[in-house]
Design a protein that fits this description.
Radius of gyration: 23 Å
Mean pLDDT: 81
Number of domains: 1
Helix content: 10-25%
Shape: globular
Low-confidence stretches: 19-30, 184-193
Distance between the termini: 93 Å
CATH architecture: Distorted Sandwich
Structural class: mainly beta
CATH topology: Coagulation Factor XIII, Chain A, domain 1
Strand content: 25-35%
Number of helices: 1
Order of helices and strands: HEEEEEEEEEEEE
Amino acid sequence: MTLKRYVFVVALVSLLATSMYALSPWASYASHADLRDRNDQRGPLDVRAVGMSSGNQPSWTIRTWDRWSATSIWDRGFLALKYDTFGDSHFDYYALIRSDGFRLRGTLHRDYKRQADEQLRRLATARPDRASVRVKVPLGAMRFDEEFVFRWTTATTWLSGRCEGGICLDRAPNKGAVEEPRRPVPTPTLTVSPTPTPTPSDTDL
């Protein structure tokens, strides 16, 4: 993929996901349950389901309705996961999955409000089958506010003349985002100290 196309797609994913956030109210979904999506877009990257594993280094598995390969989506297809970790109207990070023509590459980016995006690290990807991709995103690579939840959403793009404006975009969920607990809410622990037993003194005798 050319650098020009790569920069364009990164900006596109960031813009579309941010506008999706702004236009849609938050929706609540069960944690770690597969998120289902309808067969409602053209192209091979129409999302069918998204599942998340638990732990400090969770993985997200994006399943599509059609089969595809790294070769077939090269320079045309991109998958992204957007993360709101500060609890405002802006997505603060995104994981981008793209093809280099031979295999899939995953990268984590910081999406700043007033400066250029920054690539933070590479991400491990895997292909459970020809209609899905799995990416591992360590939560320790992102900053969080004091809340015990974060929010995520998925967006895929397919560049084709058959799509309106040359771009097929699919979102999962179609409205809002998934609210996910980051870690268990701590329960205060009450420590009871034993009451000392009084000892007789000389004045008591």
